[in-house]
Amino acid sequence: MHLIYIEDSADEHLAVFSALALPVEQWRACFGIVRDFRRDLKRTYGIYIYKELHAWKFVSGRGQIAPGFVTKAQRATIFRSALEMMTNLPGAQMLNACFPKGKIDRAFERLLNRIERSLLAWDSHGILLCDQGKEGDYTRLVRRMNVHNPIPSRFGVWGVTG
Fold this sequence. Notes:
The chain has about 160 residues and is α+β, with helices and mostly antiparallel strands. It has a single domain (about 1-145), classed as Nucleotidyltransferase, domain 5 (2-Layer Sandwich). Helices cover about 45% and strands about 20% of the residues. A hairpin with a 3-residue loop joins strand 1 (about 1-10) and strand 2 (about 15-25).
């Protein structure tokens, strides 16, 4: 079983979905690593532990994340460290999908197909955890995909002609 957190981001050109999949057996270890990382940020830079850090705001220097000033260079270093920490979480897998902004539904569908195929390969099941506020949209899309989703085919592979 995997816990899969899905996050989305978009600008005027692109829609990006990322999913972090963690085996449930590794959840406590992963949580401990993230908690220790956040505590280290508090000790080193004064960054609030319970403040959600949005990447684009964080790196661009927006938002009050600490009682003191955290420079853009420090934020870039912290961001790089956060990405490195996430890639080293035990059993963690990252899946992404990127499409033009007008095709945000297609990006989410592609990510869900990648998740489904990965879970099959891992011989596992998953619980999806989505961004607050958009769960209704995502639930509708998942239900629609359960009715009509051409990937994967229940008929196997297409025959080769020629």
